[in-house]
Amino acid sequence: MNCQEGLEDVIELVKEHEEEIDCVLCTGDIAQDASLNAYNRFAAHISELETKQLWIPGNHDIIASMEQALSNKKDALEKTLRLGNWAIIMLNSCVEGHIYGMLSEQELEFLKAELEVMRYEDRHVLIAIHHNPVPVNAEWLQNHSLQNTQDFFDIIDEYQNIKAVLFGHIHQDFKISRKKVLMLGSPSTSIQFHPEHDYFSLDRENPGYRWLSLHGDGTLGTGVRRVVGKKYKLDVSSKGY
Ligand SMILES: [Fe+2]
Fold first, then answer.
1. Does the structural domain 3-226 have CATH classification 3.60.21.10?
2. Ligand 1 centroid vs 99 CA: distance in angstroms?
3. How far is the CA of 178 from the centre of ligand 1 (A)?
4. CA 170 – ligand 1 centroid, Å
5. I want to staple 133 with a disulfide (CB 3.0 to 4.6 A). Which of 27, 49, 146, 173 is the partner?
6. Could you list which residues have their CB under 5 Å from ion ligand 1?
7. pTM value?
8. What HEC string does the chain produce?
9. What pLDDT digit, counting tens, does each position of 147-195 carry?
10. Where along the chain do its domains lie?
11. From the CA of 55, how far away is ligand 1's center (Å)?
């Protein structure tokens, strides 16, 4: 489909529904071709929301090009954001040349160190990562998910203050609870993957976004909004993306 059109429509939808936005979390696969042009365009569109934006890379992205596009907006690549009595931690799960995700030793160390700080500061924590750390119903996505999930959960299971893990990559609305921590997937601003099929398959749901409302008592509200009243041209015979 025309991803530019989807992005523009979702941004209009956000403007329509969200009165106050503290931050936009861009959870990766920002540009299919990783071109500087695409990143510049994306940054310009998100900037219309006039709020902070945080980016993490997905398997389609090239970090050097992202950094180049954000040379005047370097804070979009910050890995930790404190908001009220919450902290948002952004993780890089990308492995160059591969679709699947993996958290490097360095990234795991960073996560552990940040969680120690946040526990000391008595903050609730939301973690954002591109690759899904839990299985989804669409079997074909499993080979492409985060591979070293045990390393990840060995760390986060040590902390009681983690409230949610948010991810992109699976292009679908997804929400389960794992040991009292919410695992949240988001729709894409472009194509949607069918949540149940065991082979690559497009869903006819429209593009959308997930909103999150982080409350001072550590609870959070969340939901998905999609563009309504519009039919996008999709290449449903596509065997992949
Ligand atoms: Fe991805």
1. yes
2. 7
3. 22
4. 7
5. 146
6. 29, 58-59, 169
7. 0.95
8. CCHHHHHHHHHHHHHHHCCCCCEEEECCCCCCCCCHHHHHHHHHHHHCCCCEEEECCCCCCCHHHHHHHCCCCHHHHCCEEEECCEEEEEECCECCCCCCECCCHHHHHHHHHHHHHHHHCCCEEEEEECCCCCCCCCHHHHHHCECCHHHHHHHHCCCCCEEEEEECCCCCCEEEEECCEEEEECCCCCCEECCCCCCCCEECCCCEEEEEEECCCCCEEEEEEECCCCCCCCCCCCCCC
9. 999 999 999 999 999 999 999 999 999 999 999 999 999 999 988 888 8
10. 3-226
11. 13
